[in-house]
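In response to the reviewer comment on reproducibility (Comment 2.3), we provide here a single inverse folding case reported in full, input and output, so that an independent group could reproduce the run without further information from us. The structure tokens appear first.
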């Protein structure tokens, strides 16, 4: 059987694609290469396609038939929060219309299993120690909204025509399984810190007066290799379970503050990364940590790697890039 992985040339998608291949699954990559890196998926068949374009359902139908696709992991999306605030229509079009086109093609092709990349950004600014999936979602930016609308669309498709689906709400994804698959975009904390350290510049922390143990924001960092494994488990779950549409958090259940992450990176680098505390950034909840009971119960999955392993893998990848 073949699994189509949209966004396969991206950071997380390439990890999912490689893990599936290691397990003997054929993978068809679908990516418009707007943010993808070709070298990550050089050995995979690729459909180069913007999923949001009108012709996408037809192109996908042909590709699904040619490659005997039986299931889809849908990661392709725009993910820059700030850009989504400036260009909401583009984000809704890319993320929601892209998903709608994919679901249309799946229905027309009789492909009935889907794992959808959602995000902890759906929760917004929750005021609880650990967020569980039943908490009311109140996203605070268009990016988070597109992920929540995406979950609703997936749920509606499950009700309407028997799609079996799991939406995975990722928390902060970091680290790498192999240097060549690493996250190289300086948008998330760890690539930003490593970039600043390489330039000999201090890291500017956005706010040091939050109601957290050291005053900096706390997040739940999950190793991308563990996250990829959650996708494999989700696909297996869809093979055996008829229940339509589960929404599951993917995190570790443990938070780390910005300063703890910088310390862990300093330890991995073998030298201290200097820190300057700047003003808060709008829209940052003080803490966002996953409740991970449901994914453990439903998929039998839990994170195996911790912050030290995440940071060591990211540092090793940065050194390999030179
Ligand atoms: N990185 C994180 O911490 C994080 C957290 C929560 C959720 N997510 C979600 O995980 C998914 C993957 O994120 P990533 O970090 O690997 O991002 P990424 O930018 O590295 O990968 C996204 C891939 O999708 C492709 N793509 C984007 N729009 C497309 C379109 N319209 N048609 C076809 N291809 C398109 C890009 O070229 C890229 O290769 C996204 O859906 C993102 O919203 C990521």
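Designed residues, in position order:
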């Amino acid at each position: 059987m073949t699994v189509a992985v949209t966004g396969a040339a991206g950071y997380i998608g390439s990890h999912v694609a490689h893990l599936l291949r290691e397990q003997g699954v054929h993978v068809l990559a679908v990516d418009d290469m707007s943010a993808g890196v070709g070298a990550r998926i050089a050995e995979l068949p690729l459909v180069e396609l913007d999923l949001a374009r009108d012709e996408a359902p037809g192109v996908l139908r042909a590709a699904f038939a040619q490659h005997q696709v039986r299931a889809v992991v849908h990661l392709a999306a725009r993910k820059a929060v700030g850009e989504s605030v400036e260009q909401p229509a583009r984000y809704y079009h890319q993320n929601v219309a892209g998903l709608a086109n994919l679901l249309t093609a799946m229905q027309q092709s009789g492909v009935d299993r889907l794992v959808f990349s959602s995000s902890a950004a759906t929760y917004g600014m929750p005021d609880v120690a650990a967020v569980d999936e039943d908490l009311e979602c109140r996203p605070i930016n268009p990016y988070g909204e597109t992920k929540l609308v995406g979950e609703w669309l997936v749920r509606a498709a499950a009700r309407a025509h028997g799609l079996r689906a799991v939406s995975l709400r990722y928390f902060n994804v970091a680290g790498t399984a192999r240097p060549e698959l690493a996250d190289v975009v300086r948008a998330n904390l760890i690539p930003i810190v490593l970039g600043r350290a390489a330039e000999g510049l201090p890291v500017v922390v956005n706010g040091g007066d939050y109601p957290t143990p050291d005053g900096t924001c706390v997040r739940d960092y999950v190793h991308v290799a563990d996250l990829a494994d959650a996708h494999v488990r989700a696909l297996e779950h869809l093979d055996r379970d008829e229940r339509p549409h589960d929404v599951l958090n993917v995190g570790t259940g443990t938070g780390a503050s910005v300063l703890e992450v910088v310390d862990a990176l300093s330890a991995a680098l073998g030298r201290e990364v200097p820190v300057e505390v700047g003003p808060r950034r709008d829209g940052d909840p003080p803490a966002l940590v996953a409740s991970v009971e449901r994914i453990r119960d439903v998929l039998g999955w839990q994170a195996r790697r911790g912050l030290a392993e995440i940071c060591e893998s990211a540092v090793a990848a940065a050194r390999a890039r030179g």
